[in-house]
């Protein structure tokens, strides 16, 4: 059967329109159904500063199944806006993250499926070298363990740090700082502390020894952040003392000791109300509103001492014990044999 040319033309036009309508949303966004667009704006969170233009924005796509990492790059326009087109759609387990380097700091934002449905705002800040923008809102010192045999105490310190300004603290490590003029976070330790282990949610930087403690050289953006560290310290007799310099200040400082460690005395802090966490009951002491560098001297007394079994048993593993003890043991053995011989002699004579 032969159809009129006009009918064929009308049919072709209708089919073309149907296809266009089916793919129209993808055509509008310049992508296929298997791709997505990620749009947003880099916003400057420092008051009075315009959105940064001409800044490079990176989009990282992490493939959960393949373990691959694909990176896409765009530049912000005069208003700080950016757009990524034809990004492979994320499946279950995959993830996207935005990153931008600004003011000597890298700012990142992890995106979920719902985030990419709307324009994303990635906030950056101007930087400062003034460590005074960061304060410690809460500091806790927890006695985690006591080994009476070796007279060593293990402790944990927890910090909630707050940058309440609209600038990011960025340490300057290009030149040695002048005395008292540091641009990074510092923490004090007891003089004989060992086994230091530091943890923080701050990104970048490193842990370096400074004075009687250490420093964290990571940038500190506005907001709340966490830092913690553990250490062990020896004590003499039944007492240990050290000074915490509260270098970032401390609006609230607490010392917590599990009640199971006995009646340990505390000097330098005021008694506070204890509490329980699960099956552990803590005795508490504290201080409030300590200025940066004001510090507090802490003394713990009544710490457990080695038992006589510890004192006798521990040296047995040391070589110097045997050098001193072996002649004595041999002498005792010979004296015993001599005594036994004297006791046996009359009996032998009588026989």
Secondary structure: elements and pairs:
Layout: H1 5-29, E1 35-44, E2 56-62, E3 69-75, E4 81-88, E5 95-102, E6 105-111, E7 120-124, E8 126-128, E9 134-147, E10 152-163, E11 167-169, E12 185-188, E13 194-200, E14 207-210, E15 213-216, E16 223-234, E17 239-244, E18 250-258, E19 265-267, E20 270-277, E21 280-290, E22 296-301, H2 308-313, H3 319-350
Parallel strand pairs: 1-7, 8-11, 9-18
Antiparallel strand pairs: 1-4, 2-3, 2-5, 5-6, 9-10, 10-16, 12-15, 13-16, 14-15, 17-22, 18-21, 19-22, 20-21
Folded structure, characterized:
- This protein is an alpha+beta fold.
- It is built from 3 helices and 22 strands.
- It has helices at residues 5-29, 308-313, 319-350; strands at 35-44, 56-62, 69-75, 81-88, 95-102, 105-111, 120-124, 126-128, 134-147, 152-163, 167-169, 185-188, 194-200, 207-210, 213-216, 223-234, 239-244, 250-258, 265-267, 270-277, 280-290, 296-301.
- A 7-stranded mixed beta sheet has the order 13-16-10-9-18-21-20, with no helix packed on it. The chain has a 4-stranded antiparallel beta sheet with strand order 3-2-5-6, with no helix packed on it.
- A hairpin with a 2-residue loop joins strand 14 (207-210) and strand 15.
- The radius of gyration is 35 Å and the shape is elongated.
- The relative contact order is 0.10.
- The model is unreliable at 1-8, 19-31, 315-323 and 347-351 (pLDDT under 50).
């Amino acid at each position: 059967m032969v159809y009129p040319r006009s009918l064929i033309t009308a049919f072709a036009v209708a089919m073309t329109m149907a296809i266009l309508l089916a793919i129209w949303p993808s055509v509008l966004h310049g992508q296929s159904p298997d791709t997505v667009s990620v749009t947003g704006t880099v916003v400057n969170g420092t008051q009075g500063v315009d959105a940064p233009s001409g800044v490079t924005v990176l989009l990282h796509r992490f493939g959960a199944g393949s373990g691959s990492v694909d990176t896409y790059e765009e530049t912000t326009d005069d208003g700080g806006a950016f757009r990524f087109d034809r990004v492979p759609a994320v499946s279950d387990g995959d993830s996207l993250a935005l990153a931008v380097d600004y003011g000597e700091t890298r700012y990142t934002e992890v995106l979920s499926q719902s985030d990419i449905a709307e324009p994303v705002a990635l906030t950056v800040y101007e930087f400062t070298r003034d460590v005074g923008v960061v304060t410690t809102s809460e500091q806790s010192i927890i006695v985690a363990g006591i080994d009476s045999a070796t007279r060593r105490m293990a402790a944990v310190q927890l910090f909630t740090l707050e940058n309440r300004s609209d600038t990011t603290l960025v340490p300057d490590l290009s030149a040695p700082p002048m005395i008292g003029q540091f641009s990074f976070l510092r923490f004090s330790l007891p003089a004989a502390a060992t086994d230091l282990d530091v943890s923080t949610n701050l990104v970048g930087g490193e842990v370096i020894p400074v004075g009687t403690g250490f420093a964290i050289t990571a940038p500190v953006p506005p907001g709340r952040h966490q830092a913690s560290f553990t250490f062990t310290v020896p004590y003499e007799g039944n007492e240990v003392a050290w000074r915490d310099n509260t270098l970032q200040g401390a609006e609230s400082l607490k010392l917590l000791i599990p009640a199971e460690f006995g009646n340990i005395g505390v000097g330098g802090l005021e008694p506070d109300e204890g509490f329980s966490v699960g099956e552990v009951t803590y005795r508490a002491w504290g201080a409030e509103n300590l200025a940066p560098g004001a510090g507090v001297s802490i003394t713990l007394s009544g710490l457990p001492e080695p038992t006589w079994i510890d004192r006798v048993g521990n040296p047995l593993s040391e070589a110097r014990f045997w050098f001193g003890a072996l002649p004595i043991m041999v002498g005792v053995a010979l004296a015993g044999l001599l005594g036994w011989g004297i006791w046996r002699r009359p009996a032998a004579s009588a026989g």
